[in-house]
Amino acid sequence: MIELGNYNTLKIDRDTSVGLFLTSDTGVEILLPNKYVPKTYEIGDMLKVFCYLDHEERPVATSLEPFVKRNAFGFLQVAEVNKIGAFMDWGLEKHLLVPFREQRDAMKEGQWYVVYCYLDEQSFRLVASNKIDRFLQKEEISVSVGQEVDLLVSRRTELGWEVIINDRHKGLVFLSDVFQRIGVGNSKKGYVKNIRPDGKIDVTLQPIGNKALEPAAEKIYRMLVDHGGFLPFHDKSDPKTIAATFEMSKKMFKKGIGTLYKEKKITLGEDGIRTLEK
Description:
Mean pLDDT: 91
CATH architecture of the largest domain: Orthogonal Bundle
Number of strands: 18
Radius of gyration: 25 Å
């Protein structure tokens, strides 16, 4: 079987004038055009290729790597808008269609959007949707509090930044928990802060609890060394200035310098913190 919209590892069956024909373990064939054929190969070799439909709606393989694959979310730019819908650049020759019915708001050429790629069962075509909420799992939560997760930032709200967790769940990073630059389309590491009874998931961009102390202390110390062993920050420094400089809360900053002080790596003064000369 060959899965369209995904990577497949297939066997080289034969060489032709138009390219290599690859076969799956069930005997299904697909063409790898000449421009994607590797410089060296042997009949019978296994190749990892991405499979999708070409401009004539024929299954074809490619060595190009798309920006998003089937049943996954991505951040793509609109290359063209016509009477059919919006066509997005996803790194392949043929653009990825977002039908008008799958656009939350009318898409504009040149703009970037978070979309979900899937195989339309009626047309058997790979398409994308900007109405991403309906593709997120709300019932069966597969993450736990404190777990490190992969995030894709999808939208800003009055409360904070909505994120897609592990390509599966919807989460929220509250504005009060943001101490670094963030924007729609950003890929980030995050940590599950809370899972509510209604299934809503709160996420933070900083490690939680004891896990946060070592990274915070390490970051502060590294910045100290990079700045010649002195930084003009202390426990009375402005929280916004600390957040802008260290990308962490003032509470985390104070815990970090507390750890460094206990480890006898720094000294604390009224004008700032210094590395301890050994």
